[in-house]
């Protein structure tokens, strides 16, 4: 595992986000994640357009809702770090991270803890990369 000092330059604010990615996902994996989020100690908010509503129980329900309105799942992983998920495709789970929220070792520890939690829930590797560039891997767990 990389330490904060060796990785902090990757989180310098440059106007772009960082992506947390899980490849080779499926609706079953999404459903496990949705259930885990609902039952976790992480604070989460599900937005339907600009309204806060209860998180649906399945990926299929969310995709059905997305035919009419936009959806965002925002998860607070600690230290004011919020990750956003947009439910783009069933084959890939993606969360956005604003690098401005990553400023010290404690923030990094919160991120690594969440990545480990994601890995344990999905049984898939979790990659942090530069926005829209999965080949520019910053960190990988699993």
Annotation keywords:
142 residues, alpha+beta, 8 strands, 30% helix
Q: Strand order, main sheet: write it out.
A: 3-2-4-5-6-1-7-8
Give the number of helices.
4
Structural class: alpha+beta
Outline type: globular
Largest sheet: 8 strands, antiparallel
Mean pLDDT: 97
Q: Please estimate the helix content.
A: 25-40%
Order of helices and strands: HEHEEHEEEHEE
Radius of gyration from CA coordinates:
15 Å
Notes on the structure:
The protein is an alpha+beta fold and 142 residues long. Strand 5 (81-85) and strand 6 form a beta hairpin. It has helices spanning 4-7, 27-38, 59-66, 105-122, and strands spanning 18-23, 43-48, 51-53, 71-78, 81-85, 92-97, 126-130, 133-141. 30% of the residues lie in helices and 34% in strands. An eight-stranded antiparallel β-sheet has the order 3-2-4-5-6-1-7-8. The chain is globular, with a radius of gyration of 15 Å.
What does this entry show, briefly?
The chain has helices at 4-7, 27-38, 59-66, 105-122, and strands at residues 18-23, 43-48, 51-53, 71-78, 81-85, 92-97, 126-130, 133-141. By secondary structure, the chain is α+β, with helices and mostly antiparallel strands.
Question: Helices and strands in order, then pairings?
Answer:
Elements: H1 4-7, E1 18-23, H2 27-38, E2 43-48, E3 51-53, H3 59-66, E4 71-78, E5 81-85, E6 92-97, H4 105-122, E7 126-130, E8 133-141
